[in-house]
Write a structure and sequence with these properties.
The chain has helices spanning 19-32, 50-57, 83-88, 99-104, 109-121, 134-138, 142-153, 183-199, 220-224, 241-249, and strands at residues 7-12, 39-44, 63-66, 91-96, 125-130, 166-169, 208-212, 231-234. With 252 residues, it is an alpha/beta fold. Bound molecules: phosphoenolpyruvate (PEP).
Length: 252
């Protein structure tokens, strides 16, 4: 990894953890966090636990992330949460376009684009997720799919920087399946994403590109050693402090 980009390890807790469990996990992670200058850590609990995790980590270097957002600031949108509310709750990052949002909740590159604009307008940093399904990979369409997700997701957005955008490459076939991309497979796509960002006029060398998909303490070091892998978005292995802290220890 180039020295100008700090590693970012983000835990996506998905629809897990009661308030008491979230507080306990956040505390264990905070107490076990190594001091590393070139490392950032973020936790994305469910909405209901954002405030509790914020309180638990207050004064520590751990950042708060949301798992999703709506694109409007406020209004009659029952069940929705806006970026303004997420900022108010202490978030710095917002995951946008996670494959579970795309596949289960029908999100498209267009809705992802609206969310990205709203998150950026609010001064938060989106973590834009892209990645192909197994059928798309087997049909040789990985780069085409990822390119479209990136181009359409970021359409009309200017002023990008290493401070206000993070990309996560998450092959859908690797999420929650125990099948991770090999370091070479991941590096190939990360390299393409960085070239695309440069073609789109963004400061590609400053923008962090995380890998996500069955990252574990056993495979984290070899993935994070790749030149264009700047961190990890971790689902299952972030639900226990022990495994998440081991992944953090391999970064930075
Ligand atoms: C994710 O949810 O973004 C993810 C990568 O999950 P897992 O680590 O469980 O594959």
């Amino acid at each position: 990894m180039l020295t100008e980009r700090k590693s970012l390890i983000t835990g996506n807790w998905k629809m897990h953890k009661t308030l008491a469990e979230a507080r306990a996990l956040a505390r264990e992670i905070r107490l076990g966090l190594p001091v590393k200058a070139r490392l950032e850590v973020a936790l994305a609990p469910p909405y209901t636990a954002l405030a509790a995790v914020y309180e638990e980590n207050y004064g520590s270097p751990i950042c708060l992330a949301a798992q999703d957002t709506y694109w409007e600031k406020q209004g009659a949108f029952t069940g929705a949460i806006s970026p303004v509310m997420l900022k108010d709750a202490g978030c710095r990052f917002v995951i946008v376009g996670h494959s579970e949002r795309r596949q289960i909740f029908g999100e498209t590159n267009e809705t992802v684009n609206r969310k990205l604009k709203a998150v950026l307008d609010t001064g938060l940093c989106p973590i834009l997720c892209v990645g192909e399904t197994i059928e798309q990979r087997q049909a040789g369409r990985t780069l085409e799919v990822v390119t479209a997700q990136l181009r359409e997701g970021l359409a009309g957005i200017t002023g990008l920087s290493g401070e206000n955008l993070v990309i996560a490459y998450e092959p859908v076939w690797a999420i929650g399946t125990g099948l991770n991309a090999t370091p070479d497979q991941a590096q190939e796509v990360h390299g393409v994403i960085r070239r695309l960002l440069a073609e789109m006029g963004a400061p590609a060398q400053s923008i962090r590109i995380l890998y996500g998909g069955s990252v574990t303490p056993d495979n984290a070091a070899s993935l994070l050693a790749q030149p264009d892998i700047d961190g990890a978005l971790v689902g299952g292995a972030s639900l226990k402090a022990d495994s998440f802290l081991k992944i953090i220890a391999s970064a930075g």
